[in-house]
Design goal:
The protein is built from 24 helices and two strands. By secondary structure, the chain is mostly helical. Strands 1-2 form a two-stranded antiparallel sheet. Helix 15 runs parallel beside helix 17 and helix 18 runs antiparallel to helix 19.
Length: about 450
């Protein structure tokens, strides 16, 4: 009799649990999923995954798609962003046989690539990664998904966690203890992932200095260790004596690492004489390869800005270099006033690349000089036959609807014959401007919600 009662109790408990699960599932089904323009987050993810088809790049490369993606997921809000983070962390490597099929598929024209010849999971992964890099959700959006994966102690997912933590926005200091645990991981991949992510967290990564210093002392370091130290700015000062020892040749690791050391020293202390001397010699040396140029210094560290040492190196290279646009792009980040002056002077003299107009409007969508030049060109009756007409229009995609005269210029350009290609380009630029306006508003709203004093 007792056994019968026990069995009945167990059966009752099981039925109750199943019933509760069913009720919870039905309740969740009845709750409307957040939508933007009639689509859920998953539907938008599928839409943007089409943009990632066929590209061998970790991010979406089409600028219009990138803007639309950011508008969508800022508008959908934190629940949708958290859902995407969960999917990002759950990406599984393809089985070997599928990997071979995907490699085979890359040799097939895109229109014939379907089913097993595509890595659909990776396409979705590319979209989510692009979104996280652009939106940079705060820690409280990341935390539930990160903690859920860590609680499972799944070593296969740990590298993905470390990678995702480099994309945390407000509250990123909470990610540092997890990243430090990655530095001490015995496997090969986690320490590299942790270093990459720490390099994106700026001064919040300062608690990792002891582990970075230990790697330097044991000569078990690579360029990622140096990039983390450089991203810390003046907080990386404790490592300067060790870095100087390597740069001065006591334990010379090689020329490529010498360059990385010198760059890191200038990021920590822009007045460091030894690092400046080394890089100046590198710039003026006729044997220096393209990757050694200060152009690469400016491009490689997107978050660095207004470093006077880098500005000096870029000016030194500009004195004997013809590729002005990439150099000016780097100078715009480190000495924007001088870069604007140089661009305007060269444009006024007619010694210019029209890409300089785009550079001016990227820096300031209200730049009166650039807008006047473009307006004069568009109003010229010979504009439809100008071989560079699309380049003249291109810079307007960085403007807002209230940039002086922009809507009028586009209205004039849109009157040209359809077969000139100008009306189609105008439609594309108008879409850019519409998205720019939305992003300005959405970014301002998100900035209001951020906690002061953290990044």
């Amino acid at each position: 009799m007792n056994r019968t009662i026990q069995r009945l109790l167990i059966a009752g408990i099981v039925v109750a649990v199943l019933a509760a699960g069913w009720v919870f599932h039905r309740h969740r089904q009845r709750q409307p999923l957040p939508q933007f323009e009639g689509r859920t987050a998953q539907e938008w993810l599928e839409h943007f995954a089409q943009e990632a088809r066929g590209q061998n790049h970790p991010y979406l490369t089409d600028e219009l798609a990138r803007k639309e993606l950011e508008v969508v997921f800022r508008s959908l809000g934190s629940d949708a962003q958290r859902q995407m983070i969960g999917e990002y962390l759950e990406l599984k490597p393809l089985p070997a046989w599928r990997g071979h099929l995907v490699l085979l598929g890359r040799r097939v024209p895109e229109r014939f690539r379907f089913g097993l010849l595509r890595n659909h999971e990776l396409e979705r992964h590319v979209v989510i990664r692009t979104m996280l890099e652009q939106v940079r959700p705060p820690w409280d959006v990341f935390a539930p998904e990160i903690n859920a994966v860590l609680a499972r102690k799944d070593t296969n997912r740990f590298p993905g966690v470390l990678n995702a933590l480099g994309m945390v926005g407000d509250g990123s200091s909470n990610a540092v203890p997890i990243l430090i645990s990655g530095l001490t991981n015995q496997a090969r991949i986690p320490p590299l992932m942790a270093l990459q992510s720490l390099g994106y967290l700026g001064t919040n990564a300062a608690p990792a200095i002891p582990w970075i210093m230990e790697a330097l002392e044991l000569r078990a370091w690579n360029s990622y260790h140096l990039r983390v130290l450089g991203s810390l700015g003046e907080h990386g000062a404790p490592a300067v004596p060790l870095m100087e020892r390597y740069l001065n040749g006591s334990h010379l690791p090689g020329s490529a690492n010498d360059r990385e050391i010198a760059i890191a020293l200038l990021r920590i202390d822009p007045s460091h004489a030894g690092a400046m001397e080394y890089l100046e010699k590198l710039v003026t040396s006729p044997d220096a390869g393209a990757t050694a140029r200060p152009t690469q210094i400016g491009v490689a560290f997107q978050r660095d800005s207004k470093n006077p040492a880098f500005a000096k190196l870029i000016r030194l290279e500009m004195a004997g270099h013809r590729q002005w646009v990439p150099l000016l792009h780097s100078l715009m980040r480190h000495d924007p006033d001088e870069a604007v002056t140089i661009a305007r002077a060269r444009l006024a003299q007619g010694r210019h690349s029209l890409q300089m107009l785009s550079l001016l409007l990227q820096h300031d969508p209200y730049d009166p000089f650039a807008l006047q030049l473009i307006g004069n060109k568009i109003r010229n009756p010979f504009f439809p036959r100008d071989a560079e007409r699309f380049t003249w229009l291109f810079g307007l995609q960085f403007c807002f609807s209230d940039s002086p005269g922009v809507l009028e210029m586009l209205e004039i350009a849109a009157r040209q014959p359809e077969d000139s290609g100008i009306p189609a380009e105008v439609r594309r630029i108008r879409r850019h401007i519409e998205l720019n306006d939305q992003l300005r508003r959405l970014r301002a709203l998100d900035a209001e919600r951020q906690l002061p004093g953290d990044n």
